[in-house]
Amino acid sequence: MNIQRDSGWSRRDTLAGAGLLAVLLGVPIAAVHFDSTDDDIPTAAQGQLLTDVCDMVVPRTDTPGAADVGVPAFVVLALAHGLEGSRAPSASAAIPETASYLRPDGSFRHLAWLEAEADRECNGNFIGRSKAERLDALKKIDARGFAADGDHPWKLLKALILTGYYTSQSGGSQDLRYELVPGRWDPDLPLKPADRAFSSDWTAVDFG
After folding, report:
1. Which residues contact 109 (CB under 8 A, 6 or more apart)?
2. CA distance linking residue 55 with residue 53, whole number of Å
3. From the centroid of its chain, how far is CA 208?
4. 24, 38, 175, 206: which is deepest, by most CB within 10 A?
């Protein structure tokens, strides 16, 4: 479970991501490992980019953000293990501009695509731009991704970021409302603006 190459990620970050992935896969944490090609391992720039993107998708507020709870490492491991169909042949192949990011087996290199797309949106060097510029670039990628019909690389990446966060302890018990024993069933309850969704039904939440 070593993703050290030149990413600069700490072992603690890797273990945090592996723990989230193990929960979703329903396997022991020791079973979570890299067994595919080196292009699943992020470079230093890709690692920083992914951390920034996770932080922008779920920023720190009164609860920890996605980057705080190990979601970047979770996304890397999830991509390597093919979560959400990320290693399926011809994933995202319907989008012409993504053709250069296909592996020989037809699967898609999501991190390489995200790096190139983010840099293109910023006319180069996304991670060197101001936070406002990076956020504006990501909003454009997000709008374009969700305007596309069918599969799109960004839809999958965002789904993994949200899945990683809302299955973490902080996301599932602080950002969402967690009740170990829900109690009685009420078919109709008034909701106030400050009410949080229940963690037992987070997939029903519209994240926009």
Report:
1. 39, 101, 102, 103
2. 5
3. 15
4. 175
* Dihedrals phi, psi of 146, to nearest 5 degrees: -85, -10
Q: What is the pLDDT of residues 93-146, one digit of tens each?
A: 556 667 788 888 888 899 999 999 999 999 989 999 999 999 999 999 999 999
Whole-angstrom distance, CA of residue 38 vs CA of residue 103: 12
31: pLDDT strictly greater than 50: no
Q: What is the pLDDT of residues 16-30, one digit of tens each?
A: 545 555 544 454 444
Sequence-distant (6+) residues with CB within 8 A of 86 are 78, 79, 107, 108, 110, 156, 160
Sign of CA dihedral 166, 168, 171, 172: positive
pLDDT digits (tens, 9 = 90+) for 141-186: 999 999 988 888 999 999 999 999 888 888 777 777 777 666 677 7
Q: 3-class DSSP state for residue 134?
A: helix
CA distances to 98, 150, 180, 186 from 110, rounded to whole Å, are 10, 16, 36, 43
Q: How far is CA 155 from CA 32, 116, 196, 200, in A?
A: 24, 16, 24, 23
Contact 127, 8 (CB under 8 A): no
If you ran DSSP here, which 8-state letter would residue 108 be given? B
